[in-house]
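Quick one from the shared queue. A colleague (R.T.) flagged MFS transporter as missing a structural entry in our internal table.

Convert sequence to structure tokens.
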Amino acid sequence: MVLSRYKWFVVGMLWFVCFFNYADRQAIYSVFPLLKSQMNLSTSQLAIVGSSFMWVYALSGPFAGMVGDRLQRKTLIIGGLIFWSLVTVATAFSTTYWQLVLFRALEGLGEAFYFPASMSLVSDYHGRDTRSRAMAIHQSSVYAGTIAGGAVAGHLGQHYGWRSSFYLFGLLGTVLGVVLVALLKEPKRGQSEQPGDDGGHGSLKLDKNLFATLSHTFEHRMVPVLITVFVGANFVAMIFLTWMPTFLFEKFGMSLSMAGLNGTAYLQIASVCGVMTGGFLADRFVRRSRAGRMWTQSLGLLLGIPFIFLAGWTLSVPMLVLGMAGFGFSKGLYDANIWASLYDVVKPENRATALGLMNSIGWLGGSIAPLAVARAAETYGMSAAISASCVVYLIVGLLLIYGIKAFMKPTEPAPVTA
């Protein structure tokens, strides 16, 4: 009973860590107009400020994953939190373009260690019967942090200058890291797994050889499909996260504060609803088929297509809200099972490595989005560039369905732990 309660307490603690993970990274986008005017930055330079985080975050992913399978995950989670929080404070001291790029890159390095370690840790507290729900609850912190980062940075930037939100988030994150040293406990690896509950990979045994680790990570043919789909989904998400506040500021004439709030709130609140729905549905679908979580993801991708188009193309604020909310809900259905679906086809001892690789490749793909949209907007306009990204959702949605049909046994049930 104590373990049953504590495993949900773990999700709650990590919820707040992830909250600051996303608030810190999102804050910069809401003050782009201020940076553009005060530092005389071009649209392409702003895109590089945004992408510098993603490039380092992505390139650090494989290393972070392999470290997460070998070192204590509690140490990586708390150490990463304190490091990136201090870098967030340091960002506020930037006076030049290249200082901004440097600190954003260092923040990407610190945050790269979080997801491989935290999701591996959660999977050791939650078996197949609660894993999607646990990860869905945790995923809701992504949206809450994104809203807070966008709204608070926009409001504080408008009234107190762009640096103020970086002081706030950085100092609060550092305090949280110190508190968690005493509260977060490291579980035994694979403790939540039952016989046959590892996707058919056999007993828990860590590969010491790097090439053996990579080989075993990709031995299920569904793994590269899931990674490719994640690239596409992340590409579209980065378009909205990076450019929506600026889009609302310029196209709809909103104030900096309102653009930061509206550019994140409707999409992210709807995503919370979607992610909770996706976690609930997937934990039930997976009892009938090992691909149950993946079917939930494909539903979210295909459902989001018309809403993405609407959000970019409409001239009406109510229809814009509908588009962002609809896309947010659809995105949540997909997001709820990003890691849980991966863990259904990767053995426990390689999960942090698999997540690190998937996160790395996905964010490398996503890092192209800010620059691609900046260049496309110069020729076709920001509205057309955002709307056109719905084609990416269509392609990866169909790819995921193909992968399920081709590589997942339709009648093979996923084992459920007691």
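The CA atoms of residues 38 and 95 lie 10 Å apart.
The radius of gyration is 20 Å.
Added to the table.
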